[in-house]
Amino acid sequence: MKKEIPWQERPKGSTDVMWRYSENPIIKRDAIPSSNSIFNSAVIPYKDGYAGVFRCDNKAIQMNIFAGFSDDGINWSINHDPIIMQEGNTEMIASDYKYDPRVTFIEDRYWITWCNGYHGPTIGIAYTYDFKEFFQCENAFLPFNRNGVLFPEKINGKYAMLSRPSDNGHTPFGDIFISYSPDMKYWGEHRSVMKATPFEDSAWQCTKIGAGSVPVLTEEGWLMFYHGVIHTCNGFRYALGAAILDKKSPDIVKYRTKPYLLTPSVVYELVGDVPNVIFPCATLQDIKEDKIAVYYGAADTVVALAFGRISEIIAFTKENTL
Ligand code: BMA
């Protein structure tokens, strides 16, 4: 039986390229007993349904990642206890906190990347076959770094990861880089991919940007949703854009949205622990049906879902490129 991804047609009267799920948020802040908030989280097809890794901050505001399962990608059952890591390709590495997970299937297993607290934020890596046992590997980079996103296949024989070098706080800068590894342990060949924009060109992404969802291979190249940030007089505002990276050399940005695709505009994006945040971390797509569903954290409090037609997002990105 063909697995349906979550989907709703574009609302009548809307001309927007992407639109929100009418029942958002799909995961509320108190979906498990210990949680203060559940947001920036990742999902992936698994067996007959879906699995996910969720960022749940508890009521002491300790950040951790939790596994969860769903039949339909909308109704989730999230474990009440965080993921316990075992040794992967190295000895156990300290992890003061874990947040903002991404999940990628490569070859034979599911890889998790997240922001790992190791003398400050950097990129943690683990793998699992079943979302029950998880094996933690070497951190990809030195601190400080965030938003590590793996490509779903090797590129020129190597694992490839986007990331965003940062600082120890609420980083006021940030560009996306790509790094390669032969073995998921040693990372190098770091190259610049895309930068925050000049204010006068596209101000919603002028302070910093970060990779969001796992890139999806399309006829035009790798389609990736990212967040862009503007520093306003009221703090940071996080919006969502799309980029298309070259298939063979993904450090080459073919197209990138000058206007945003989604910006905080409905109550669960405008109101929460951190107002004005849309933070994409995953997609589910049906390439044949030309459908994509984007999972994003809203206002650092809940998880929400948005939809679009892949062909329309690509056409829009090409026609409105920076
Ligand atoms: C970033 C990260 C994200 C968060 C965002 C907005 O620095 O901490 O987890 O969603 O800020 O607060």
Q: What features would you highlight for this structure?
A:
2 helices; Tachylectin-2, Chain A; five-stranded mixed beta sheet; 4% helix; five-stranded antiparallel beta sheet; 322 residues; mainly beta; globular
How is the topology of this model organized?
Blueprint: E1 18-20, E2 35-46, E3 49-58, E4 63-70, E5 77-78, E6 85-87, E7 98-106, E8 109-117, E9 121-128, E10 134-136, E11 145-150, E12 159-165, E13 176-181, E14 188-194, E15 208-211, E16 216-218, E17 221-232, E18 235-245, E19 253-256, H1 267-270, E20 278-286, E21 291-298, E22 302-308, H2 310-319
Parallel strand pairs: 6-10
Antiparallel strand pairs: 1-22, 2-3, 3-4, 4-5, 7-8, 8-9, 9-10, 11-12, 12-13, 13-14, 15-17, 16-17, 17-18, 18-19, 20-21, 21-22
Give an overview of the whole structure.
By secondary structure, this protein is mostly beta strands. It has a single domain (27-319), classed as Tachylectin-2, Chain A. It has two helices and 22 strands. Strands 6-10-9-8-7 form a five-stranded mixed sheet, with no helix packed on it. A hairpin with a 6-residue loop joins strand 4 (63-70) and strand 5. The termini are far apart. The model has no long low-confidence stretch (mean pLDDT 97). Beta-D-mannopyranose is lined by residues 40, 99-100, 170, 238, 274, 277, 279, 297, 300. Beta-D-mannopyranose binds at residues 40, 99-100, 170, 238, 274, 277, 279, 297, 300.
